[in-house]
Amino acid sequence: MTLSSIKKIALKVVCFLFASIYLISFNLHANDAQMKSLINDITKMYMSSMVYVFKSQPIINDKNIDKKELLGKRFIDNIKQTYLAKYNEEFPKEDHFVKTVLLQAMVEVMDDNKALLYDDEIGFKGIIPATFAFQLSAKLSTKGVGLKIKFTRTAGQIRNKLNRPDSWESSVMKKIQNNPKIYYDENALLNGRPAIRQFTPLPMAHYCLACHGIPDNNPLNAGKKRSEWTNIDITGFEMENWTIDDFGGGVSISIEKSVLE
Ligand code: HEC
To answer: Which protein residue's CA is at the shortest distance from atom 31 of ligand 1?
Structure first.
């Protein structure tokens, strides 16, 4: 073999290697984009369900009325409407089984609450966005599909100990607390396995303070003498004395990468 033909072969090998590296990295990026879009869809579907539960407090708590808007396919249709109104775009297609499982879990959670919903002895049912979120997380954890959703806040003032942040969530909240914005991490871990994770902060609003604020904000104290005031909110938890300038916590979503392949 002449020197020049060796050079030609070497050149071809190098070109082939570069082309392969380019193609592999292109593929990885396509994958990154798909992962990011999946976690975004999941976040928005979840947020819409919380908004719908918030808006439905009258249907949830009223006695002697039908509750079918909160059950089965009707419930999902209402969440889809809420999504459309909130984001001004069509509800995501069920093009990944994780989305289908999420919708199923939402229906199952409301189904588990059916007896409570129709119980005409109980006025305030306590099915608020935070409890719905918690029940949904618990439901998803039984599905074993590598999707985890959690409603959490900085450690120290957590109502439900099961919502306590893990180390990834704590470090993300530290970073964004003073300037809340969505934080996406495509190289994180969940239960020691590679995962994509996203934290979406919830904006603090005045109505949050009815439960998480100071006793002055507690509607249960309205019209009562200060000496009769309580610092227990309508859901039975001690109020945390948050103010409107405090960090409102947020939604933490993780999907194991094995699910994405
Ligand atoms: C009707 C009372 C009520 C209102 C209003 C309310 N929350 Fe909560 N919140 C709760 C309860 C009860 C829990 C615990 C739910 C559970 O069992 O996991 C909770 C839990 C949370 C958590 C999870 C961490 C924890 O402490 O367990 C965050 C974060 C949170 N709320 C933020 C907010 C924000 C932000 C708003 C307003 C946008 C809000 N809440 C409005 C009652 C309320």
So the answer is: 130
